[in-house]
Structures are given as structure tokens and as C-alpha cells.
Amino acid sequence: MDVKKGFTLVELLVVIAIIGVLVGLLLPAVQAAREAARRMQCSNNLKQMGLALHNYESAYRTFPPSSISVGWCCSSPSAATWGLYILPYLEQGNLANQYNFNLFSDAAPGRIAPTGGPNEFVATQTLAVYTCPSDVNTKTL
Questions:
Q1: I need a labelling partner for 7 at 20 to 30 A (CA). Which of 26, 32, 72, 124 fits?
Q2: Which band of pLDDT confidence, cut at 50, 70 and 90, is reported for residue 17?
Q3: What is the dihedral of CA 37, 40, 41, 43, to 10 degrees?
Q4: How far, in Å, CA of 127 to CA of 116, rounded?
Q5: CB 93 within 8 A of CB 99
Q6: Alpha carbon of 105 to those of 12, 34, 111, 113, 118: distances in Å?
């Protein structure tokens, strides 16, 4: 009697089906873990911004202005926002040093630098700390 060793076609199909079911159950769990990690990173970003604001307050005994418009506050011609003032406390001191606060800004409302202005590079940077990893529409440094 000749005995053949190996898998039959039915056994092979059953093994492939079991592997497919296991992968189908595992992928949602992996995606849920990734999303939880993204939420944690977003929460950490908010914490870092809060710490940077408090460090700024410790250094200057006031929180940074929400924004500066010409003629509103601080005799500054620039249109800087709080996000710019806390850059040194977010380990972005080099980027903050590139911004010229003495430059007049004739930027459109909602922008801190006009298109093509010397401060445009700083104004157009999107830092990772200001975004959440789940936001797929952002390109960050």
C-alpha cells in the first residue's frame, strides 16, 4: 500500500481560511492601538503647549498676547500671535529668532505675514506640536 504524505487540498483551504479569519480579527485591533497612540501624542502636544505657556508666563510675568494687530497693543507693528511667542519654549528657538517683530505686517486678516514678506517662512511653518497625528491634512516639520 502506497501512503502519500502531505496536505490535501481541503486541509490547505481550511488552514488558509483560518489564517484569513485571524488576520481579519487582528487588523482592527492594530488600527485601534495606532489610533490610541495618535490620541496620546495629541494629548502630549497639548500638554507641551500648556507647559510652554506657563514657562513664558514665568519668564515675563504675563501670558503672551493672543495676537498683536497694529494699533492694538504693545506698540509692535508685527502681527505676531501667541504661538510665535512660545516657540523658544517648544524647542523651536531658531525658528523664533528668524521672525522680525519690528517689521510692519500688512497681512490679510488671519495671517501673520503677507505673501512674499520676510517673515513668510516662519509664518508658514506647520510644527508637529501644533497638530494632531490623526489630522491627515497637515504636513509638519
A1: 26
A2: very high
A3: 160
A4: 20
A5: no
A6: 71, 42, 9, 6, 10
pLDDT digits (tens, 9 = 90+) for 91-124: 998 888 888 777 765 555 555 555 566 677 787 7
Q: Using CA of residue 80, residue 82, residue 44, residue 27, what is the dihedral sign?
A: negative
Cα 54 to Cα 93: distance, rounded to the nearest angstrom: 16
Q: Are 15 and 22 in contact (CB under 8 A)?
A: no
Distance (Å, whole) CA 112 – CA 63:
19
pTM above 0.70, yes or no: no
What are the residues facing 81 on neighbouring strands?
67
| Angstrom distance (rounded) from CA 68 to CA 78 | 7
Contact 129, 53 (CB under 8 A): no
Task: Give one word for 124, left, alpha or beta, with left for phi > 0 and alpha for psi -120 to 50.
Answer: alpha
For 16, phi then psi, to 5°, come to: -65, -40
DSSP state, 124? T
Mean pLDDT over 6-32 rounds to 91
